[in-house]
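User: quick one, sequence for these tokens?
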């Protein structure tokens, strides 16, 4: 078990207390011109000593609380100069108290892109009494002495003392919390094997794309791709090798579309590609979607070289050919639901399978 530092306030010894009492008595007599009995005289001195010790103990307790706080505490004056810097601030930002005090805050812990806003914020508060980030908890990025940026939770409170403002800031490193939030988000919205968006995120993005289509009047398209000849690979070499192929498929798919488009793993060996913001003309949009679908079909039909270790530990490489049947469904506005668009693309995909596989087919609505 690691020992922790114990903080304690200062307590005077008997001789120190006597000396303090004599000093207090002197000031009472010389400065205040005390009138009274000798007993009252020494009682007044004792009272003053007790008051001084109580004040000192209170100040020491406050400093201990500040120094042992689990958050960084930073004080700045109305010029943005650091006037207070606790132990956790030293650990968090890499500047010692002696180094930090007297430095401009924006040059010490604020990333360059926020510095102008920080200085403007102080000026605005001093002029108007208003500040957007004051008396609230916000999440921003701070900067370590080595230049590394990290996310923090920040709360700033203005304090008026002797007619001038100071600002106290409590700063908490939230790097671990953000990492955990991202992990939860990955589990909720992304496929664990390929890293592609899952059905939930696909549905959300389709809703966004359909809303954008309503505003712009442009068509979008959904491509439903199902791998041909995937099952034999799993049956022969096992799911681990099948996973290698799925990862490569995901890589090829993302390389065939724009960054703004979405490639999702729908389940098993099924993938959905959503193309947004084509053009207003249906015929031209069909041509665009067809070109991308054919590009995808050709990319997935290229041989796969899969490296893996056998049961005896030897590394081997196999070549596998695995094409895809692709169904395409166009959409515009909110005239069709997300579920129906996916269903139409799925129907077109099965049509492609029925007509020989490794091909592209468009959904055609029946009159």
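Assistant:
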């Amino acid at each position: 078990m690691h020992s922790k530092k114990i903080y304690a306030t200062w307590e005077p010894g008997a001789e120190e207390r006597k000396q303090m009492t004599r000093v207090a008595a002197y000031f009472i007599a010389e400065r205040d011109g005390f009138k009274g009995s000798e007993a009252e005289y020494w009682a007044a001195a004792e009272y003053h000593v007790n008051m001084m010790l109580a004040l000192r103990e209170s100040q020491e307790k406050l400093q201990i609380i500040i120094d042992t706080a689990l958050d960084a505490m930073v004080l700045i004056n109305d010029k943005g100069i650091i006037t207070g810097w606790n132990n956790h601030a030293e650990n968090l930002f890499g500047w010692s108290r002696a180094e930090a005090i007297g430095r401009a805050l924006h040059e010490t812990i604020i990333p360059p892109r926020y510095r102008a806003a920080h200085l403007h914020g102080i000026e605005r508060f001093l002029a108007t009494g208003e500040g957007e980030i004051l008396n609230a908890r916000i999440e921003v990025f701070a900067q370590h002495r080595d230049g590394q940026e990290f996310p923090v939770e920040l709360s700033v409170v203005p304090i008026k003392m002797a007619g001038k403002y100071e600002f106290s800031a409590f700063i908490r490193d939230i790097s671990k919390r953000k990492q955990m939030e991202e992990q939860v988000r990955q589990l909720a919205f992304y496929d664990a094997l390929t890293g592609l968006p899952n059905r939930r995120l696909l549905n959300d993005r389709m809703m966004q794309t359909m809303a954008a289509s309503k505003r712009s009047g442009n068509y979008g398209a959904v491509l439903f791709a199902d791998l041909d000849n995937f099952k034999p690979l799993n049956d022969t070499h096992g799911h681990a090798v099948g996973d290698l192929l799925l990862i490569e498929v995901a890589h090829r798919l993302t390389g065939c579309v724009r960054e703004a488009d979405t490639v999702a793993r729908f389940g098993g060996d099924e993938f959905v590609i959503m193309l947004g913001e084509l053009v207003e003309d249906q015929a031209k949009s069909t041509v665009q979607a067809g070109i991308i679908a054919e590009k995808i079909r050709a990319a997935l039909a290229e041989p796969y070289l899969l490296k893996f270790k056998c049961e005896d530990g030897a590394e081997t490489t196999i070549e596998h050919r695995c094409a895809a049947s692709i169904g395409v469904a166009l959409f515009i506005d909110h005239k069709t639901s997300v579920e129906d668009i996916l269903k139409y693309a799925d129907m077109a995909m099965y049509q492609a399978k029925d007509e020989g596989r490794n091909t592209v087919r468009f959904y055609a609505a029946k009159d």
